Amino acid sequence: MSEVKPEEISHPAMEQLQGFEYCIDSNPPWGEAIILGFQHYILALGTAVMIPAVLVPMMGGNDGDRVRVVQTLLFVTGINTLLQSLFGTRLPTVIGGSYAFVIPVMAIVQDSSLAAISDDHERFLQSMRAIQGALIVSSSIQIILGYSQLWGIFSRFFSPLGMAPVVALLGFGLFERGFPVVGRCVEVGLPMLILFVVLSQYLKNVQIREIPILERFSLFICIALVWAYAQILTSGGAYNHSTEVTQINCRTDRANLISSAPWIKIPYPLQWGAPTFSAGQSFGMVSAVLVSLIESTASYSAAARLASATPPPAHILSRGIGWQGIGILLCGLFGTGTGSTVSVENVGLLGSTRIGSRRVIQICAGFMIFFSMLGKFGALFASIPFTIFAAVYCVLFGLVAAVGLSFLQFTNMNSMRNLFIVGVSIFLGLSVPEYFFRYSMAAQRGPAHTKAGWFNDYINTIFSSPPTVGLMVAVFLDNTLEVKDAGRDRGMPWWVPFRSFKGDSRNEEFYSLPFNLNRFFPPS
């Protein structure tokens, strides 16, 4: 038996992932790009519908109010996605609603002064105005940290070793939205999961006119087939005598979105009335803004890798966070009921389709704005059972997590120091939020329960976010534990050139502003 060569055992580190036909600044033909953009739009509907479905009834809103909030959230998502792809990081990311804001929003909704309002619709309006005020004030945190370059300065403490667990937890930390939700309607969710894996992976080489149609459009095909299958089950009376929970998760006619939606309705600023402002509520909302900032930072790193771009330099990262702060400000002005962050599932779809084109995401933003104004058509797509989205999340969140782990190729994983940092940060990033979640489910409140409501929101929100806990642990350990001679083991020789805009010649190609705006806003 011949001796095994070292190069046959290990693989060389590679800056770009293999198999991507279109990267950040290359574009597929218009026909393909439009279908791919629509596919991203369909995927973004899951979060856009689910967050209002949870919050609006608690606020006292009816089905009509829920539809308007969904429309508004999609409209603002489209605007924020366009702004971010044009003037922010310029990465192919969808800037959608964020679950990080649910805890402080629920705290506002449960405020005694609002809960005392007897009229449901009036309580909904007053709750929405209070949420708007808190979002408007707290958005200043990201705007300041972004445009002052403070977040870019802080990002200099990052390394491939420190960011790998954070990006991995971005995907792993969302496991509650995967198979636990699929299991609520396994006869719909499981076929969707199996079909999506088969079409996107096992049959990905099937081509029509030299286009790998099943790999690129598998999400669209699978959702159409399983949605039709769910409609047949619903129409056939399969759930007529099922429990309420089963009907909510399985039926295609339980959302009441289509009947409640107007034909045409254009969202506009202050449509719910003038925002109201409270210092305590605004301070509590700041915690969600910080979580959104950290989760988005991890998402930008994953998106850059899936778009075959260099890691975003500190200046570009700060610019993106600044525009994201403006996005949260728009959420407050329009009244979306939540703030914004990078959509993790859409980042995962870049990897599933192997297309990281910026133009595709901009087309997706156009669909969001268009269908949010045409209420009936948007509501039709928004009535897809959430179980179908959860099945897709099982694959896409896993992809994002794997992208995070791929940063470890630039580090020395034979170092016990590195193994300790990665292992502890991932474990605590999963374990601490799980403790907060289980405690909250059992006690109907978070572990932090003092007389200072804003402090409770801070602790309960920050420690319920896996990427946030992971970043605090990983970055602290990475910058304090045996740092002196660990630069090479941490992956810094590969990472350092990307810190500044001029550190790599490709940065200008990927991140320069359009319309020659770099003349007026030169990157540092």
UniProtKB/TrEMBL annotation:
Keywords: Membrane, Transmembrane, Transmembrane helix. Belongs to the nucleobase:cation symporter-2 (NCS2) (TC 2.A.40) family. It is a multi-pass membrane protein. The keyword NADP does not apply. It is found in: Membrane. The keyword Secreted does not apply. NCBIfam families: NCS2_1. This is Nucleobase-ascorbate transporter 2.
